[in-house]
Amino acid sequence: MKSRRLGAPSVAKMGLERAIVKWVGGAVRHLQQSQAYKQAPRRALSNGARNKRVEVLETGVVDPYKVDTLARPFPLTPAWWSAKRRALVRAAKSAYSLSKIQQADRAFSLQEFKQTAWQIYRRVNVAYARGDVRTLQDLCAPQPAQVLIRSIQQRSPSEEHVWQAYPHDGEQPLPPGQNEFLQARTFRLRVIDQSGKPGDYMRMAQITLRFSYERILYIEESGGSKKLLAGARDEPAKVTEVCVFMRNLSLGTQDGWKYIAKL
Questions:
Q1: Which of 92, 118, 175, 239 has its CB surrounded by the most CB atoms within 10 Å?
Q2: 43-75: per-residue pLDDT in tens?
Q3: Banded pLDDT at 94 (limits 50, 70, 90)
Q4: Is 237 left (phi over 0), alpha (psi -120 to 50) or beta?
Q5: Cβ atoms 208, 65 nearer than 8 A
Q6: CA pair distance 250, 253, nearest whole angstrom
Q7: pLDDT at 260
Q8: pLDDT at 168
Q9: pLDDT at 186
């Protein structure tokens, strides 16, 4: 009997199947570990498990979205599979977080939120340009509000800042391709007072979006001179910004979404 030789196509197929099994298995293990972490006892979290698994920026953004600045890897390479696995894990975490948000607020809709978030971000920029402290306090989380207010206080009284988004000053909804959902995260936050006494846990949510739009930004002096910072009236500057919004789910509908950071 002649021995059967395994041709190159069969070898390639087996290699592809092994890569798929390895990729899916790694993603499942990662999700299982994440679920186990969520159910871990509090003493384990207090021993540093939280900081080892989740990155937290100084701005308060939890597990920040990683903006990919590298070129796309070649298909079916290890880097390509790794990127696919990260995308799968990110999508699974986002789906889980969105379900938790909908449990806390039955009226929540991702499509409506995207337009609400854009209007919040537009109003924050307009308020910052005008020096409207109260609006910043209403629409921003405490830390970014303090930073923006401090910057306003350092301005010269003769300066007038102008921020405009196009078209129609950004009042119209952004098209879907210019208002992109990137990820959602839910987590528990425990506030410790000045005496060191820990308070109750609060359920928090953060959603990251990417806005692509056109704007002009300039400073007008009291004498009438203008300092153009971005764009011009006949040619607004195109910008893409990744922004994070946060909400306290423990308060239900009593607490709205607030701007927290720009990545």
A1: 118
A2: 333 333 344 467 888 888 988 998 766 667 778
A3: very high
A4: beta
A5: yes
A6: 9
A7: 95
A8: 60
A9: 94
Asked if 214 contacts 165 with a C-beta cutoff of 8 angstroms, the reply is yes
Residue appearing with tokens 């308020």: 127
Please give the residue that has the higher pLDDT: either 46 or 93: 93
Is residue 79 within 8 A of residue 73, CB to CB? The reply is yes
pLDDT average, residue stretch 85-93:
88
Angle at CA of residue 136, ends 135 and 138, nearest 5°? 65
Tokens of 207: 């959603």
Contact 258, 120 (CB under 8 A): yes
CA 118 to chain centre: 13
**Model confidence, pTM:** 0.73
| CB distance 103 to 252 below 8 Å | no
**Amino acid making up residue 85:** R
The residue count for the chain: 263
Q: Which domains does the chain have, with CATH numbers?
A: 56-70+106-262 (3.10.450.240)
Residue-wise DSSP of 41-78 = -HHHIIIIIHHHH--B-TTS-BS------SPPPPTTSH
Helix axes 110-130 and 142-153, enclosed angle (nearest 10): 20
Q: Is 28 within 8 Å of 35 (Cβ atoms)?
A: no
User: Is pLDDT of 185 > 50?
Assistant: yes
Phi and psi torsions of 4, nearest 5°: -90, 125
